[in-house]
């Protein structure tokens, strides 16, 4: 108590004597400064006034500070003249603006054009029941959807804990040693499993066998991925066709699906043994709900287990976004793709979570990375984990038993009409042979459509169906009567239904082991408790709800509420990705419009919305380039030039597309070394496939020579891939086509306002020039792509379709002129920030006119030299000021990359600059010896409340200096919940699951290894 009294006393004193006064601000006039409406009939709820932070007065003030009297003059000095496009290219004429209310009205109209048929199509997609407490408080809550990937764990403990719950849930249900914190979708997860099996043999064994019970979209994605790696993909009956000696000798892995796409539950334990005898891996795609009743793959010998977790409370959304899960055995963990959350401790020994084994990831290992995964599906993984927390093991099993029981009733009743179920061992999916009862499968489908039902189309003779949690008694009566009507049998009623006495799972494949024994899955089953748990976790996380997140290259802008609203409407949320075309007219219109807007913005000809992250877009775009070369008899072109400053996903994606990476130098000022590029392009001219360039570059530079660079590549037979992660600097000012590119991806989760979700979802569509359009990705169920299309790159035809609505709404509400204005203000905000910070920090790059692009790179190397202060010390100290640190140590290890975006007001930008300048002063005190080098506010940052309020305080600075270094923090303080986290300790003592009941009984988690792998290896072996 005494501690708290002391603290209150400190706070009530004038504790900010050392802080410099906040800069004089110009009065903010808000909307009063917005342009007057053109007529009485014009809307007043214009979105650009809400989206763009600075108002006209603030814009004028910033321009004046930079020495300009107009925005045009400023832009002219910032964006090279030769790449400028006419202002008409992206304007309100080309993309008209709608007000917020008009947009919602339009979305309603389009929603009505989607027909909400009840889909029993299955194939990995279900009608999930989203608990309202999760829908409202996670999916629709900016506290959960606006934070970034938890690279700053001290201000992200909430979602880190939730993601550990996800990992624990997957490990427990699959009975595997370790699981990651999600992948993009089930099919790409299977492709990652295949590559793990392949690289595990060091490329010596090249055959990967996929069972024909695997979903067709997964087989399609495997085909694309196998091509890049030169894997020989064989599809057949895994239980019958694997006897061949030559095949066995070259086998690196086998993929099975359990239950399979037709519903059969097969015993793969013998297969696991024989696959292991050849030295290959057994990969299993499965279903988490089924595993509450089925013997888990980890108990019958699978090495890798994966699937889609969406039926745990995530809407179908016409295909996504959903969180794929991925689990493996302990010995494979260092090859595992994707983010892994591990438990470590902070400097005071307090347990704390953080991203583990990051040295596996592409940003460190680049072309040697295990995969190119960067953004994954954190928000959806959190929803699925919370679903398991809410239901707990008992309710999950009840749900599974009901689904299974209903499926059994359907089988028995429908067989009574003469149809023949293809398998007698199933969980929730059935395939019926309809021959002998009706003319063909179409007879059953028409009967289903007449009842507002979609069944799975298998072939002329077979019809499939899959049940889920949403199915009630009335639904199964209707479903059964579809079959009755097609067979001209009298309809049944609910009173005719009789539960089966047996379960249709053979004894040896039934689950006997317990699952989810951990306290977290057994404590929050009332809505009150659940709500409190959700709020408890979210209170630990800093999102855009608190302050700006100025992460360079990440474009953390406003995710407007109006653009988020439509995607949880049932008309958009409850649509199966393989629903017939005439039921998805609303989605089709959204997709068509979004594709055309993205083409206008990039200057390209055609678009594919299928890739579900930026890195997936890179892989898709490079695969398109490869296919183009092949179509011209130049398939041997396999060299990809990539600047050393490129994002780690670039080289990792190039390798996945079968390309060999040759690095290109950059100058110290950030510009590409054109001489080196020329030399390398010439040297490899016979094999040059592509050049990847980020524009503006990752140094925050609008390179003048971009068109020259692209010409060098074209002259030597290559194609140019433009990484569009920085497109926010370009809209309406320049575009990737004008810069000289042939293909680019966009991160809709950056430039086009899809929230980052605490680590995903994302969408990474690609736009291409006309000559590449025929090669855009296809899909095995829903036709997409060009006439020479590459195979699918994602499970669903339009990837994470439901969130396309966000970017569609964003573009429509801003309109062309608003989009262009947003880019200009993004440039202005960054330049104003550069102006305020230079003089205090070393700005690493500016152009000849003194301008940066939409982000700025400051170099902190001098502080390391003078006082041993690292980038991380500044970053952690920023947390004490309530800010999310900028991107750290990338693209240069001693730098911070800062991107304010257009959504931040002058006041917020000044607040951030004030914080940075105050930290600079704190650093000065350390350099001059006023404060010790090893025990100071920067080295000890961040300061959580537990440290500030501790009985003991023996630091050479006061508590108020630690916690309230600026006046506004008294009003607006965000507390990190732990002190600085020890990364090395976490990797050396890898714990990736939540504590078990046994550990809870001990009251400690120290020293107890439970259902988590024991790791004695040292980090140096990574
Ligand atoms: C320049 C650049 N390229 C590519 C990517 C990859 O995008 P994603 O994380 O969506 O895979 C990023 C992500 O931060 C990036 O900054």
UniProtKB/TrEMBL annotation:
* Gene3D superfamilies for the chain: Aspartate Aminotransferase, domain 1, Type I PLP-dependent aspartate aminotransferase-like (Major domain)
* E.C. designation(s): 1.4.4.2
Please report the organism this UniProt entry assigns to the protein.
Answer: Pycnoporus cinnabarinus (Cinnabar-red polypore)
Q: Where in the cell is it found?
A: Mitochondrion
Q: Which cofactor does it need?
A: pyridoxal 5'-phosphate
Origin superkingdom: Eukaryota
Q: How does it assemble?
A: The glycine cleavage system is composed of four proteins: P, T, L and H.
Q: Which UniProt keywords apply?
A: Mitochondrion, Oxidoreductase, Pyridoxal phosphate, Transit peptide
Q: Which residues form the Glycine dehydrogenase C-terminal domain?
A: 822-943
Write down the top EC class of this protein: oxidoreductase
Q: Which GO terms describe its cellular component?
A: glycine cleavage complex; mitochondrion
Write down which residues bear the modification named N6-(pyridoxal phosphate)lysine: 750
State the similarity comment. Answer: Belongs to the GcvP family.
Name of protein: Glycine cleavage system P protein
Which segments of the protein form a coiled coil according to its record? none
